[in-house]
Amino acid sequence: MCLVLLCDEEQRVLRSFTAPGSCPYCGGKVVATDVESACSFCFRPLCFRTRRKFICTLCRCRLVSLPTLPPPYTHEHLTASDV
Ligand SMILES: [Zn+2]
Predict the structure, then answer these.
(1) In the structure, what pLDDT confidence band is assigned to residue 77 with cuts at 50, 70 and 90?
(2) Is-above-0.70 flag for pTM?
(3) Nearest Cα to 27, choosing from 70, 62, 57, 71?
(4) Among 5, 46, 49, 63, which residue's beta carbon has the most beta carbons within 10 A?
(5) Residue 72 lies in a domain
(6) Which PANTHER family does the UniProt entry name for this protein (predicted)?
(7) Average pLDDT in the 16-37 region?
């Protein structure tokens, strides 16, 4: 009996677009890329995960963005709501 375990991760770029904000290191444009990684077992897909990667187009730095964060450079202490 021969049992072959095949589990490889396949990555597929779904789309990429220019993300709001700029690179904190060099100020370059940031491109967001949605990557779908499928973990397949014996050529049957087991799980799909979609991750969003942020990469600076100038310095190629990998960036992390918090999805709930408003666009950068807003400062909550500057709002007049707590008067
Ligand atoms: Zn940069």
Answers:
(1) low
(2) no
(3) 57
(4) 63
(5) no
(6) METHIONYL-TRNA SYNTHETASE, OS04G0606200 PROTEIN
(7) 91
Amino acid at 73: Y
> For the chain, how many structural domains are there in total?
1
Domain that holds residue 43: 1-58
How far apart CA 2 and CA 9 sit, in angstroms, is 22
Question: How far apart are the CA of 44 and the centre of ligand 1, in A?
Answer: 39
> How far does residue 56's CA lie from ligand 1's centre (Å)?
5
The strands making up 44-56's β-sheet, listed across from edge to edge, are: 7-22, 29-41, 44-56, 62-63
Please indicate, yes or no, if residue 44 is contained in any of the structural domains. Answer: yes
Tens of pLDDT, residue by residue over 29-68, are 999 999 998 877 777 777 788 888 999 999 998 988 655 5
Whether 70 is covered by a domain: the verdict is: no
The residue with tokens 């397949």 is 40
20 Cα–ligand 1 center, Å: 14
